[in-house]
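Section 5: illustrative case.
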């Protein structure tokens, strides 16, 4: 009886981990996260002061959405579904052996294959994240490449959805506070 009660929790844990090992919080990872959080405030300042972009939630429900709902939804979709799937697919991808458009050197093919397996999913997910913001922000969605890349890199380095959600919420909070003049 007790095993059947624990299975839904195990299934949820498997979905949340999405084949990724959550890495321990090392000093190097914590320093990276601190840098990302500092850069988030700087990017929010640039977006607000140079481009006039803002995030002005009105009411408790809007603040709840900006600080919790959107980060949880977007990070669940982009990290658990998109980036994890791309990462797994690119791990299996091998550059073509012969192509008119592809370098013929085995060393270059190996380097490109290694880079795509390591960083390809991060780059493609950042582009998808920016494109998802295009309907609401037009060409300004290009600014979302920066936080999109940062969030994808947090996922790649930590494997923690919680760290991605917290970082996303910090990006949103930084922009919302700057938009209100705080």
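Designed sequence:
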């Amino acid at each position: 009886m007790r095993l059947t009660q624990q299975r839904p929790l195990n299934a949820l844990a498997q979905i949340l981990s999405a084949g990724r090992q959550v890495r321990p919080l090392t000093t190097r990872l914590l320093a990276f996260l601190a840098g990302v959080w500092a850069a988030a405030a700087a990017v929010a300042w640039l977006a607000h002061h140079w481009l006039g972009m803002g995030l002005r939630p009105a009411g408790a429900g809007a603040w709840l959405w900006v600080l919790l709902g959107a980060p949880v939804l977007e990070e669940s979709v982009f990290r658990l579904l998109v980036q994890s799937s791309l990462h797994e697919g690119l791990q299996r991808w091998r550059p073509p052996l012969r192509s008119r458009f592809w370098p013929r050197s085995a060393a270059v093919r190996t380097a490109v294959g290694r880079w795509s397996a390591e960083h390809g999913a991060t780059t493609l997910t950042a582009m998808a994240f920016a494109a998802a913001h295009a309907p609401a922000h037009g060409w300004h969605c290009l600014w979302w490449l920066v936080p999109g890349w940062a969030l994808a890199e947090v996922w790649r380095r930590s494997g923690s959805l919680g760290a991605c959600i917290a970082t996303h919420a910090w990006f949103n909070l930084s922009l919302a506070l700057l938009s209100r003049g705080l």
